[in-house]
Amino acid sequence: MLSFIINGLTIVVYVSLVGQGYTHETVNHSVEYVRADGVHTNQIESLLRDAKRKLKAMNGVRHTFLPSYMDEWMWRHKRDNSHYFNDLVKAIAENPKYKV
Predict the structure, then answer these.
(1) For residue 80, is pLDDT > 80?
(2) Mean pLDDT, rounded, of the chain
(3) Is 0.85 topped by the overall pTM?
(4) Between vectors from CA 42 to CA 40 and to CA 48, what angle results, nearest 5°?
(5) What confidence category does residue 10 fall into, taking pLDDT thresholds of 50, 70 and 90?
(6) From CA 60, how far away is CA 52, in angstroms rounded?
(7) How far apart are CA 54 and CA 56, in angstroms?
(8) Torsion-angle region of residue 18: left (phi > 0), alpha (psi -120 to 50) or beta?
(9) How far apart, in whole angstroms, are the C-alpha atoms of residue 72 and residue 90?
(10) How far apart are CA 51 and CA 61, in angstroms?
(11) How many CB atoms lie within 10 A of CB 42?
(12) Strand partners for 3
């Protein structure tokens, strides 16, 4: 794992995500911005821009709470705004930790 600090924001880069079930691709921006096979970084750069905008709107967050805020932000980002409550109730109901 590599860690960088840019303008006070710590960015953690996982060099090998394969062990966690992900396919990790890279793009050498000194050569190209989109590889011939279509791999690019536009989506992740857009997500990071939106996340930074959210954190700025909150006037920053404590370092210890950052993972929790990012988890919530990603959860909301994946859903339609009108269904947050229903999706939350469904997620809780489907979680084995909360089975009665």
Answers:
(1) no
(2) 78
(3) no
(4) 130
(5) low
(6) 9
(7) 5
(8) alpha
(9) 15
(10) 12
(11) 10
(12) 12
For the chain, give every domain's residue range.
2-98
Measured distance between the N- and C-terminal CA atoms of the chain, rounded to whole angstroms: 38
Tokens of 16: 């090998």
- Helix (H) or strand (E) run with residue 73 in it: helix 66-77
Cα distance between residue 57 and residue 87, in whole Å: 25
**Candidate from 10-14, 22-26, 47-51, 77-81 with smallest mean pLDDT:** 10-14
Quick check: 27 and 35 in contact, CB under 8 A? Answer: yes
Give residue 68's identity as a one-letter amino acid code. S
**Cα–Cα distances in angstroms (integers) from residue 12 to residues 48, 64, 67, in the given order:** 12, 14, 11
Phi and psi at residue 30, in whole multiples of 5°? -75, -15
pLDDT in tens, 33-45: 899 999 888 888 8
pLDDT per position as a tens digit, 22-32 = 777 778 888 88
